[in-house]
Amino acid sequence: MVGRDFFLQSNVTTIARDLLGKHLVSRMDGEFTSGIICETEAYAGVTDRASHAFGGRRTARTEVMYATGGIAYVYLCYGVHSLFNVVTNAEGIPHAVLIRGIIPLEGKEIMLRRAGKEKVTKGFATGPGKVSKLLGIHYSHSGLILSDHPGKGKNSVIWIEDHGRVITPDMILQGPRIGVDYAGEDALLPYRFTVPGLTLQTR
Description:
Elements: H1 4-7, H2 12-18, E1 23-28, E2 31-43, E3 72-77, E4 81-88, E5 95-104, H3 108-115, H4 128-135, E6 158-161, E7 173-175, E8 192-194
Helix pairs in contact: 3-4
């Protein structure tokens, strides 16, 4: 179980890298699903033009980003896809990490049913909309605490586990984020992190 202290680190890119290899787990209506995090993007709050909180912007949707790190920020994209983010840093500093890809682990048959697919194929769990759909994460889950003990408490439907998988720097590819052209020069920031070797696993 990843505790709250992990999410309170001040460097959002460090957290985005350190989330790689950890397990994102959900328990929705008694159904467990999980996957290894293999792709993340960091969003650095008020100074980052790609962030929903750039310039100190606060709305009913983004207010959760200003809370103490360790909670979910899930927003609806294009009125269709729920995108799951981890809020980080101290209260009042709206940093967040978007989970862009996982390697399916537990509950593959549940994921296949949710996706309307017959088998796990390449790219099955690549893309933030797919991640949320496969794990049953909905924008209504925004604000849930991610560090609750699994299975205990009303918030314990999404959490992150550390199984000791070692991801070394040479395994990580770092580059610009996807779909943030509106952010001008900040669109070029190397805030996307992937572990290509993990994408070949379907265990």
